């Protein structure tokens, strides 16, 4: 599945020892190096500035990140993007066809709004054949809150005609207990995606540990910096392996700030600009949920109604 078969050792100025240092610092692919800063490479690989510069330039050239492409080429790239159905046609339409690969999709909303349910549903649906709205791929689930339920996955899989056991075998699960582990597992996800046809990575929820570990104003800058790096890793993963990243983010419902900026108290500005597509989920008359696209460069700010049923995410029957 890997887009860059070229090893770090193939770059000028990188011997085995330097390559190992870079890998353990999280730069596992040429593409990730292409996006690194000179400072980072100097520090992590313990090389001089000139060497770092040479390494990065070579990595950029190899990854095609050192040149302009035409708008038409961008269009062609956009047309190759994969889409995973959410289980609801209305919600898919809202998202422009489903949850996209090569992008980070964030669902935010209050408790019980369906963020985790959608994560489960996507883990199932990514396995479907393309004509059914899937990508015939596997999923990685990084669980920070301990709310992954295999039984729920079984039920959802059976409802779409997949073998429940096989569906569960196609999900790689890890429970993480702090931000360091969360970050490390995203880097490990890259190794797994090299070997397995992973087309979806779920982080549920992105912010829980960051919120718990970094309390108070004086910690904010440090938190945002770490979070920013983590989000960059997720974007890189999405890009390098043509996979979809789905993250969740709990925010308190507060009608008074309706479309002020409901994420500000939690994610701050870094998160505000990090996800490619953001959907705001809110509860309506049970089992209804309302989804709204928020702050998208492409999609209009519309709403869609869907329901959470025994079978999973579905459209509201007319
Ligand atoms: P937090 O993680 O607490 O922020 O909430 P969340 O947004 O992740 O909510 P989640 O996706 O866990 O949604 C929980 C809701 O989904 C429940 O309140 C139920 O309404 C619904 N739900 C969960 N499991 C089932 C099920 O098996 N059948 C049905 N019909 N509904 C379910
Ligand atoms: Mg949840």
Quick summary of this structure?
This protein has 318 residues and is of the alpha/beta class.
Highlighted features:
13 helices; nine-stranded mixed sheet; binds magnesium ion; binds guanosine-5'-triphosphate; about 40% helix; about 325 residues; two-stranded antiparallel sheet; alpha/beta; DNA polymerase, domain 1; Rossmann fold
Describe this structure in words.
42% of the residues lie in helices and 19% in strands. With 318 residues, the chain is of the alpha/beta class. It has 2 domains: 3-63, 5' to 3' exonuclease, C-terminal subdomain (DNA polymerase, domain 1, Orthogonal Bundle); 77-315, P-loop containing nucleotide triphosphate hydrolases (Rossmann fold, 3-Layer(aba) Sandwich), CATH 3.40.50. The strands form 2 sheets. The protein has a 9-stranded mixed sheet with strand order 5-4-6-7-3-8-9-10-11, sandwiched between helices. A two-stranded antiparallel sheet has the order 1-2. Helix 3 crosses helix 4 and helix 12 packs across helix 13. The longest helix has 21 residues, at 220-240. The protein is globular. The site of magnesium ion has 5 residues, from helix 7.
